[in-house]
Every structure is written in structure tokens, then in C-alpha cells.
TrEMBL record:
Residues annotated as binding a divalent metal cation: 145
UniProt-listed InterPro entries: DinB, DinB/YfiT-like
Keyword field contains Metal-binding: yes
Family that this chain belongs to: Belongs to the DinB family.
Record organism: Rhodocytophaga rosea
GO molecular function: metal ion binding
Designated name of the protein: Damage-inducible protein DinB
Keyword tRNA-binding: no
Protein keywords: Metal-binding
Alphabetized Pfam families for the sequence: DinB
């Protein structure tokens, strides 16, 4: 009886967000993070830190890896490394890599079935959770690191972009 009730519940479940809306939300955060990268002076992007934290370029590379590797894992269950031929050494190179990952996310997203978001997987061989939860983690991690970037920019006397402008 319990099983039939749960199946009926799942069949009539209403979704709050569509996959397209979730992608737009994630890409809104990525657009804002890109503007944070753009706001950094070239030299500070790769060298400046506060309180022993990593420079923002290293944080951006972590986000690039999560998004680039993560979208493939989300879509297919295969958590392969995102190919990065050379570590960027300039802001232009970092932004180019950021944009390549954005394009990869946009091209891969339609391959994700609605059911896949509810499946459990082990992201990067270590983090077991539902796919939607893994994606939330990617977004939360980006917000966290972008916040570090805001602190860096403010300590450099630079006004960061408004956090609510994600278009």
C-alpha cells in the first residue's frame, strides 16, 4: 500500500523549477562571477589574497573545474576531468576558459533527463548525493568563493558588481 501511495505521489508531483529555469539560475550566478573576475586588476587576480586565502584566480579555476567536469558527470554519470591544456596566466585567458565552460554547460544541459536530477551519484568519486543536490552544491560553492572575491575587491578599494544583478 505504501509503495502505491508513493508512486501516485511521484506521478502527480509538481515541480517548482523546470530544468531550463534551474540552468538560467546557475548561469545567472556564473555571469555575476564572470563580472567579478573582470573587476580584478590583472596582477591582483593572480596574486592578491586576504588572511591566507587563495588568490581569486585559483578560486575561479576551482569553479571552472566543478562546472566543466560537473556538467558531464551530471549528464552522464562519468566524472572525467575537464580538459584544460594550460593553466591561465592572464585575465583574458581565464575569462576565455570561463566562457568555454559556460558553452559546455549550455550544450550539455539538454542531455540531462528530468529523472536524472533525482538519481543518486558519487560526484568526483567522493560526494554521494542526489544530482539536484550536487548542482546546488556547485552553485553554493560558487557563491561562497565569489563572496571571497567581493572581500578582495573591497580591500583593494574596488566596488564589486551588485550581487543581485545576474543578467
Amino acid at each position: 500500500m505504501e509503495t502505491n501511495s508513493m508512486q501516485a505521489e511521484e506521478a502527480t508531483q509538481t515541480h517548482i523549477l523546470s530544468p531550463e529555469q534551474l540552468l538560467a539560475h546557475w548561469q545567472g550566478h556564473r555571469k555575476l562571477t564572470r563580472r567579478v573576475i573582470e573587476a580584478f586588476p590583472d596582477d591582483a587576480l593572480f596574486s592578491y589574497s586576504v588572511g591566507g586565502m587563495r588568490p581569486f584566480s585559483e578560486l575561479a579555476l576551482e569553479m571552472i573545474g566543478m562546472g566543466g567536469e560537473g556538467i558531464g558527470g551530471i549528464a552522464t554519470g562519468n566524472w572525467e576531468a575537464f580538459p584544460t591544456p594550460n593553466t591561465p596566466t592572464t585575465k583574458a585567458e581565464l575569462l576565455k576558459l570561463w566562457d568555454e565552460v559556460t558553452e559546455t554547460i549550455n550544450k550539455t544541459w539538454p542531455q540531462i533527463s528530468l529523472q536524472r536530477f533525482q538519481e543518486t551519484d558519487v560526484a568526483f568519486g567522493q560526494y554521494e548525493s542526489k544530482i539536484y543536490w550536487t548542482l546546488f552544491y556547485f552553485i553554493d560553492n560558487e557563491i561562497h568563493h565569489r563572496g571571497q572575491g567581493y572581500v578582495y575587491l573591497r580591500s583593494l578599494g574596488i566596488q564589486p558588481p551588485p550581487f543581485w544583478e545576474r543578467e
